[in-house]
Design a protein that fits this description.
CATH architecture: 3-Layer(aba) Sandwich
CATH topology: Collagenase (Catalytic Domain)
Number of domains: 1
Distance between the termini: 28 Å
Enzyme class: hydrolase
Number of helices: 5
Largest sheet: 4 strands, mixed
GO molecular function, one term: zinc ion binding
Protein name: Endoribonuclease YbeY
Structural class: alpha/beta
EC number: 3.1.-.-
Radius of gyration: 14 Å
Order of helices and strands: EHEHEEHHH
Main location: cytoplasm
Number of strands: 4
Shape: globular
Length: about 140
């Protein structure tokens, strides 16, 4: 079950569409969907989580807490909407695209993908692009 929670005034426009897409992302990796909670927040909220749980005093766009057991994908994914907006502007992409990249990124970590080395980061980017292509935008 995928749920969306909001600690800021942002809300996804079409939760069922995002839920269906994320379920497809999980299936495409031959994993089983467990309980996944997305928590959308602002920089300050996520900074406090970063300090409290990871002892990092830095801004970030995503923090994920992985409760995956075997192939059952579960966890809490905190996303700073403020940071995603800024990153989208910095990368020259639209906000919705960057948000989907970050949302897929959290799931990919649960599937075992890392991003600490250059090679791992390259694989992660390729996987993000592959998973973002599963999201169908109506024209």
């Amino acid at each position: 079950m995928i749920s969306f929670n909001y600690e800021t005034d942002f809300e996804l426009a079409d939760e069922p569409k995002y839920e269906a897409w994320l379920s497809e992302v999980i299936k495409s990796e031959d994993k089983t969907e467990g309980e996944i909670n997305y928590i959308f927040c602002d920089d300050e909220y996520l900074l406090q989580k970063n300090i409290e749980f990871l002892n990092h005093d830095t801004l970030t766009d995503i923090i994920s807490f992985d409760y995956t057991m075997g192939n059952l994908i579960s966890g809490d994914i905190f996303i700073s909407v403020e940071r995603v907006k800024e990153n989208a502007a910095d990368f020259g992409v639209v906000f919705d695209e960057e948000l989907r990249r970050v949302m897929a990124h959290g799931i990919l970590h649960y599937c075992g993908y890392k991003d600490k080395t250059e090679e791992d980061e390259k694989v992660m980017r390729e996987k993000e692009n592959e998973k973002m292509a599963l999201f169908h935008v109506e024209q």
